[in-house]
Amino acid sequence: MNDAATAYSLNGKRVWVAGHGGLVGSALVKRLAAESCELISVSRDEVDLRRQKEVEDWLAEARPEAIFLAAATVGGIHANYSRPAEFLYDNMMIEANIVDAAWRVGVEKLLFLGSTCIYPKFAPQPMAEGDLLTGPLEPTNQWYALAKIAGIYLCQAYRRQHGCDFISAMPTNLFGPGDFFEAEDSHVIPALMGKIHKACQENAAEVEIWGSGEPYREFLYSEDAADALVFLMKSYSGAEHVNVGTGEEIRIIDVARLIADIAGYRGAWKFDRGRQDGAPRKLSDNGLLRSLGWTAGTGLRDGLQATYDWFRQADAAGRTRA
Ligand code: GFB
After folding, report:
1. Are 209 and 255 in contact, with CB atoms under 8 Å apart?
2. Which of 89, 95, 237, 312 is the most core-located residue (most Cβ within 10 A)?
3. What is the pLDDT along the chain (322 residues), one digit of tens a residue?
4. List of residues 6+ apart from 211 with CB closer than 8 A
5. Which of 83, 86, 188 to mutate to test the pocket of ligand 1 (most atoms within 8 A of CB)?
6. Residue having the nearest C-alpha atom to atom 9 of ligand 1
């Protein structure tokens, strides 16, 4: 058992999922339905999480006992690179406002969510928690990464100075139902699903893949991620952030082939070399999470199939966020 293993019960607790409409947030809401807790949420129209007073007023009134901080400005490689001000400002403000207000109203436990893009571009693979800040960041997502690194340090600082039980989890690239399936701003899996689905419908001869198709990524199904986050909330208390992944990686071209197989696409690939590859590899070391007792349950193909089934239905009903 790890030193930081602990027991925190969610039974009867008021739990706020900040970012409940997003990919992880919606999976968390689904997963938390199996716990005996009271879920609370607030919409973007009611509270702008980038505004300190709005967050302070909401938390003073709502008084959650536990918070999953899954709210963030997110997007794929192009969104990160083309909107650096939003990715840095929004994410720093959201986390600073929520962490500080959570301490002020006496929140018992808070789990802050980041991403494995916090690690250096050329970190040793697999990347362990201790590899943080050992080298320069990947330029395409350095603004998002810096905000998330600041979030980890915020949780550590409030733990050290105020004794708050605030923890951080760093999931690898996530995908699943309810994702943002748009060609320019989304992550690779929803982007390729959208493009491949359209190519099938239009009988197109080729689908565009950004960059070389050679980078490797580690993908985790959003419902597995939510399960890991609930597990950490209940069983981990430490200053060190915790990687959340599968420990398995795949080349971008191979994940495209898997999606093509699921969707029935038999056309060609066209590589747009004018687009960036980003990090060459981002494989996480999940030793800490495994030592606490959690491993992922959904295989990549099964997760892709479930996501594609959801997407096809949502697309047909005009319900995708594309
Ligand atoms: O998912 P993605 O945008 O994010 O891209 P990152 C992963 C890889 O897929 C890159 C390639 O090498 C892309 O060039 N790719 C190929 C595509 N075709 C496409 C496409 O049509 N759309 C997209 N989006 N990619 C993000 C960070 O990095 O990962 C975020 O920017 C965050 O900050 C997230 O950390 C988890 O893995 O490169």
Report:
1. no
2. 95
3. 466 778 999 999 999 999 999 999 999 999 999 999 999 999 999 999 999 999 999 999 999 999 999 999 999 999 999 999 999 999 999 999 999 999 999 999 999 999 999 999 999 999 999 999 999 999 999 999 999 999 999 999 999 999 999 999 999 999 999 999 988 999 999 999 999 999 999 999 999 999 999 999 999 999 999 999 999 999 999 999 999 999 999 999 999 999 999 999 999 999 999 999 999 999 999 999 999 999 999 999 999 999 999 999 999 998 876 4
4. 252, 271, 272, 273, 275, 276, 277, 278
5. 188
6. 188
